Amino acid sequence: MPNPRVLGLFRAHLPPPVDHPDPAAVRPFETDGITAFRERPWVVVLPENVEQVRTILEISDDPDVPVVTRGAGKGLSGGARPIRDGVLLTIFQDAENHRR
Questions:
Q1: Which domains does the chain have, with CATH numbers?
Q2: What are the φ and ψ backbone dihedral angles of 68, each rounded to 5 degrees?
Q3: CB contact at 8 A, 4 and 37
């Protein structure tokens, strides 16, 4: 279930997350290379460095806050699919281009 406390901490300590309420912004992240399977994550976080990844995992350290890590989003062999109401931690270096 979405956790407003977690989202508030993300907003306070990280680059702007991509929120679920904006379907157009989240759409590029709801699937990987296998587009037959789609799931809209609750929030997408786009860390810029290792320290931010650590912060995301510390904030999300709760059994009720599922986190899925995603690389480039190709996912053609064992891809990481988002979880509804979960956090999608995108570590792809060029993730910023997905915002545009």
A1: 4-99 (3.30.43.10)
A2: -120, 130
A3: no
